Amino acid sequence: MTFPSPKGEGWLPNGGRGEVKYPINGDVEQNRRGEVNRLSRRDAFGSNEKQSIPSPKGEGWLPNGGRGEVKYPINRDITQNRRGEVNRLARRVAFGSNEKRINPLSLGRGVAAKGSRGEVKIPFHNYIYSRYLCNHKTRNKNTDHLYNQQTFMKSQKLATKFIHAGAEPDPSTGAIMTPIFQTSTYVQSAPGQHKGYEYARSQNPTRAALETALAEIENGKFGLAFSSGVAATDAVIKLLGPGDEVIAASDMYGGTYRLFTKVFEKFGISFKYVDTTNAENVSSALSSKTKLIWIETPTNPLMNITDIAAVAAISKKAGTILCVDNTFASPYLQNPLDLGADIVMHSSTKYLGGHSDVIQGALITNSQELRDQLYFIQKSCGAVPGPFDCFLVLRGIKTLHVRMKQHCENGIAVAHYLRNHPKVDKVYWCGFEDHPNYDIAKKQMRGFGGMLSFTLKDSSIEAATKVLSSTKLFALAESLGGVESLINHPASMTHASIPREERLKNGLSDGLIRLSIGIEDADDLIEDLNQAIG
Questions:
Q1: Residue ranges of the chain with per-residue pLDDT less than 50
Q2: Cβ atoms of residues 31 and 76 within 8 Å
Q3: Which residues are catalytic?
């Protein structure tokens, strides 16, 4: 009889007592991919091949009805299980008579029941053994949570969730970090027969890991990554058609306003801009044409707060979609899906990436229907991020909780310093108890973040320019959410696309200065502002 060698480099003749004579890639198909012919399986498992079962820890197969030692490691004698490419013997042992009704999902997240029409029940990293239990009496309703990755992640504390979201050791090497799959296409064994990946615009394993992580950290079911925050916003508006109407916040990111007014209005989509800090304004603006409500909270740059739960109730009653731009808060401080939103949008460039080294966007939802529509738009319009960018955001998410704690702590210190400065007129920060919607912010957020804006008592553009040009630690730049502190002039930078009269009407003056408080020492940041303001 022929046996696999202990190190997996080939086959041992004479009942395992001979030398390795048949290298894995010579005598049989490449074992790592599970393409082992019938003869090889019989030689490997002997007459008890049908009695071999997965080991309890999922690292291999136990011969002789489970009484033997692990001899056939998962990644050598069956398919690489992260992608669900398991040979027929492995499927029969793991899944029992229902093997044809249980298929791996093409996104590589796990195993779905009922011919791929069911939800993901078993994560790939342990699905062989756990699915074996599913078909035996050892599995019951009390142990369902052991096999549902999303349920497991939801039960974790924030720090644990951010570190482990979307992370599975690479099955081919054991690498703890998700590999960067820098490829444009994937080899197929026959037309239409592939390993869940066809073309990198449609799917990429690194992006799939990130999209899983995005869903987990926002307590959602589905995540989609885009090449920028604007690309993610663009995909949401493409859910609509000519004649449809959007209700949007009057105070919002300038790039979003530009996209709405300069791109989509000419395609017959109309936009109403209202003060969403009062949910009744949203209700009053509804019409039979309203298909989407778009809000930011906190807003950019005036830090206005909208009651997400109240607007969600209005949206659901009207049968519209509610999308919340959660960029300023981040998933660490706020989870709009938990409050009733249909879609959460992020500019992942900001707090999710956290290091000012990547451009990316994200959408998260609990709706299968919305996910399918948005995925079709993502694939068809092609605004997808590259695998290296996905890796950078995955890395950034792991430290989100640590960074956000410091952003919040520094934000408190800087906000109170500015409020007490004799030359500062007004500070816009949602953590002040006299902020108009402080109670709402306190209710729906875990903290108040590191974003704030302020004006000087000398409201001239010259006075603001002097401060903007005088800081040493605060870098004058667009963007936000990085570890380093940034200072910004919205009127001429991030919100220059909004007409001046509209800006002034919404409270965005020419002298407004926006700060993205980094994670440096707060005393140093205050000293820098002190010398710049004078």
A1: 25-51, 75-147
A2: yes
A3: 201, 253, 325, 350
